[in-house]
Amino acid sequence: MTSSPSIAASMPQANFKTEALLTANKLNKTVQVGEQTLSIIKDVDIYVNAGEFVIIMGKSGSGKSTLLGLLAALDYPDSGTVELAGQTLSSLDEDALAVIRQHDMGFVFQSFHLLPTLTVAENIAFPLDIARRPNPARVDELIDAVDLGHRRYSLPNQLSGGEQQRTAVARALVSHPKIVFADEPTGNLDEQNADQVMQLLLDLRQKVGSALVVVTHDPALAEMADRVITMHDGRIVPT
Ligand SMILES: Nc1ncnc2c1ncn2[C@@H]1O[C@H](COP(=O)(O)OP(=O)(O)OP(=O)(O)O)[C@@H](O)[C@H]1O
Ligand SMILES: [Mg+2]
Predict the structure, then answer these.
(1) Which pLDDT belongs to residue 19?
(2) Of the bound ligands, which one is closest to the alpha carbon of residue 41?
(3) Cα distance between residue 25 and residue 131, in whole Å
(4) Are 97 and 110 in contact (CB under 8 A)?
(5) Cα 77 to averaged position of ligand 1 atoms, centre (Å)
(6) In the chain, which stretches have pLDDT less than 70?
(7) Cβ-based burial of 4 (10 A; exposed 0-12, middle 13-18, buried ≥19)
(8) Ligand 1 pocket test: which of 29, 40, 78, 236 has the largest number of ligand atoms within 8 Å of its C-beta?
C-alpha cells in the first residue's frame, strides 16, 4: 500500500533520509618518510550538512590540515571516498574537479594565499573570472561587505594581515559556493583582526547559505559552531 501525499507530508521528519552535502567514508592517507610509511589519516568518516558550520580541532600534528585537504579534493586519499552533493570526487578527472572547486567550493588559508600581482578587486574577482562568469557588481558587493572599498586597487603586499584575510574571505564567497573550507583562517592575525575576519566569514556565509568547515585552535570559535569535531592521531575522537 502506498501512502497518500497528505499522510506522507504529516510523517515525522526522522522517517526521511536527509542527504548530507559532503560525506567522507573510511578515508585513509599515508605518507612516505624515508623507509617508513606513516598513517596520518585513519578510517575517517565525516559528514557536513548544507549550511552547517563545523569546526575541526585537535593538537598540532593530529591530521586536521591533511583531512581538510582530502575533503576539498586538494589531495587524494589512499583509500576511501569523498562525495559532494552526490558526486564522488575521486571518480572525477582534474578538469571536472577544477570546475567543482571553482563553482562549489571556497578556500581560506592561514597564510592568505592571495595572488601577489593582482589587486584586491582582481583577487576577489578571480574565481568568477577563471570560471568565465565575470560579475563586477558581485565583486563590488563583496568589496563593500568586507569594507575594503578604499583598498580596491592595492596589491596584497600593500595590505595589513587583516586586510589580506578580508580579501581572501570575500574571494572565498564570491561565487556562492556550497561549502567553504578554512584552515586556521585567523592563525596569523591579532585578536581584534581575528574577531573581525571571523565575524565577516560568518556573516557572509549566512547570506550565501554556504556550509563552513573551519580548522581552528580557538575555543571561543567552537562555541559558535553547529558541531565540533576533534581529531587525535589521525582519527576523529568519538563523542
Ligand atoms: N607530506 C608529508 N610528509 C610527511 N609527513 C607529513 C606530510 N604531511 C603531513 N605530515 C604529517 O602528518 C601529520 C598530520 O599533519 P597535519 O598538517 O595534517 O596536522 P595538523 O593537525 O594540521 O597540525 P597543525 O595544527 O600543526 O597545523 C603530522 O605528523 C605531519 O608531520
Ligand atoms: Mg594544520
Answers:
(1) 78
(2) 1
(3) 29
(4) no
(5) 14
(6) 1-18
(7) exposed
(8) 40
User: What is the largest distance, in Å, between two alpha-carbon atoms of the chain?
Assistant: 69
Which residue minimizes the CA distance to atom 7 of ligand 1? Answer: 31
Q: Whose CA is nearest to atom 3 of ligand 1?
A: 31
> How far apart (Å, rounded) are the C-alpha atoms in residues 201 and 211?
11
Q: How far is CA 78 from CA 30, 121, 206, 236, in A?
A: 7, 38, 34, 17
Amino acid at the residue 89? L
- Dihedral-angle region of residue 62 (phi above 0 means left; psi in -120 to 50 means alpha; beta otherwise): alpha
pTM for the whole structure: 0.91
How far, in Å, CA of 113 to CA of 109, rounded? 7
**Atom 28, ligand 1: residue with shortest CA distance:** 61
Element (H, E) at 116: none
pLDDT at 201: 93
What is the per-residue pLDDT for 72? 94
Could you identify the atom of ligand 1 that is nearest to the CA of residue 231? 21
- Say if ligand 1 is within 6 A of residue 33 CB: yes
40 Cβ inside 6 Å of ligand 1: yes
Q: Which residues contact 25 (CB under 8 A, 6 or more apart)?
A: 45, 80, 81, 83
Quote the cell numbers at residue 51.
Answer: 549550511
Contact 80, 28 (CB under 8 A): yes
